[in-house]
Amino acid sequence: MPKFLRTIRLDDSDTRVFDDAAAAGEWAVSGAFAFAAMEREDLAGKTGHAFAGGFLGLTTFGRSTLVAVTEASARDLAQIERRLAEHLVARYGAPSLQLAFPAAGAELAMILGVAAEAPVDAVLTVKRRFDAKGRIEQRFGRIDLDITASPP
Q1: CA geometry: angle at 90 spanning 84 and 91, to 5°?
Q2: Does the N terminus or the C terminus of the chain have fewer Cβ atoms within 10 A?
Q3: Residue 120 and residue 115: Cα distance in Å, rounded?
Q4: What is the pLDDT of residue 26?
């Protein structure tokens, strides 16, 4: 079964860091496309935080600092792609749903590639910046959490 990303929250910091925080458990993509038309000087404050390290949740379309790798069915992936394509039309002015599907598919393919390289339940981060030519560069990282409690 393919792997994809879901938002997680370890605390409520995302509600203070981002204008709109994603809820825990949303399917998520990078969402770097949201910043493609922006200049460096547009990325101040909470928008800058979203650019630098926020994944895009696909229910609320809020941002999340952390995501977890999980399995996704073919049906899940089809729903994710459709939801993202609809968002590209509604929020970013894609001329039609039909024309938005290739962009949504490209975003999904990228996330499927990222998730494939990590085990299920791995916690991932993203770091973004503009490269010297003004293109968005992304690096995905993994946080190793040991949440097992030692017996008293």
Answers
A1: 85
A2: C
A3: 8
A4: 98
